[in-house]
Amino acid sequence: MPPRFVTDAHIRAHLTPRLAIETMLAALADHGRGALTAPARVTAGPLVFTAGATPTHHGYRSYAAAGGPAAEQVVVAHSAESGAVEAIAVGNLLGPRRTGALGGAAASLLAGPGPHTVAVIGSGVQARNQLWAFGGVLDIAEVRIHSPRVARRERLAEHARTVLGLPARAYAAAAEAVGAATIVVLATDSASPVIDAAGLAPDVLVHTLGVAAGGRSEIPPELLAGAFVTADSPAQHLSEADPLLPPGGAEAIVPLGRVAAGLVQAPLTGRRVYLSRGLAGTEVALLAAIGAAAAAG
């Protein structure tokens, strides 16, 4: 049987936030139990590769490191049983949906009961997909969006209201947006902190999707002191040069998969920090789930 070819249009038609998050929770739990292989990504010339294996599928994602006006990503899923290629995805939506779903999975494990006030700093693709996933798993009372460019933050707030059905509005200042928020998402390309740790609520979950290595980070380093720190892929985070670390060092970063597998009890109060680094193998798991959903009609 020929492999299923999956486009961004197929993903929009068949992938719901709930299916995406359930798939990520299962993959994270597999990782926590040692049943998902997820090495750090590698660069080969102009291409970046992530490869991984779940109990049912193995495969890889590849994309151009420098991007480009027509750049696309490729994800391939093989059957672990037969080795046959079951699905191939070409486009740009699977990666952001996967990252958003991992964020949704992290929130379902770490945020605690709502209703939640969600602050988003950033207005790009990753910010949009975090909200897409959150809407499927969280009780959200309010979404506050800040980005330096007025038009972009207003556009994302409008998208959240009209497309995602979330009560969202734009904020002119980051400090105003994060004040008293129970969940804060940082999705920027900033090399320096975009929030002040002192301005956060004492009980808050912070997701950071940006760089956190080499002396560059969108989160203030002092936020990690006394916080419960977790990462979807500690291996990826630690593979970076001079990664941002909590005071307890690398050993203090709890693999999110161990929380998903029930091996670690995460706190639902106090400050919790989720380092979103991209767990290899989850793109393959998500592609397999999309293929199954498409086949089921």
Protein architecture, described:
With 297 residues, the chain is an alpha/beta fold. The chain has two domains: 4-95 and 281-296, ornithine cyclodeaminase, domain 1; 101-275, Rossmann fold. It contains nine helices and 16 strands. The protein has helices at 8-14, 17-32, 94-110, 125-134, 150-162, 174-178, 234-239, 256-260, 282-296, and strands at 4-6, 42-44, 47-53, 57-64, 73-79, 85-91, 116-121, 140-146, 168-171, 183-186, 204-208, 212-213, 216-217, 228-231, 253-255, 271-275. The strands form three sheets. Strands 9-8-7-10-11-16-14-15 form an eight-stranded parallel beta sheet. It has a six-stranded mixed beta sheet with strand order 1-6-5-4-3-2. α2 (17-32) crosses α3 (94-110), α2 crosses α9 and α3 packs across α4 (125-134). The chain starts with a strand and ends with a helix.
Q: Topology of this protein?
A:
Elements: E1 4-6, H1 8-14, H2 17-32, E2 42-44, E3 47-53, E4 57-64, E5 73-79, E6 85-91, H3 94-110, E7 116-121, H4 125-134, E8 140-146, H5 150-162, E9 168-171, H6 174-178, E10 183-186, E11 204-208, E12 212-213, E13 216-217, E14 228-231, H7 234-239, E15 253-255, H8 256-260, E16 271-275, H9 282-296
Parallel strand pairs: 1-6, 7-8, 7-10, 8-9, 10-11, 11-16, 14-15, 14-16
Antiparallel strand pairs: 2-3, 3-4, 4-5, 5-6, 12-13
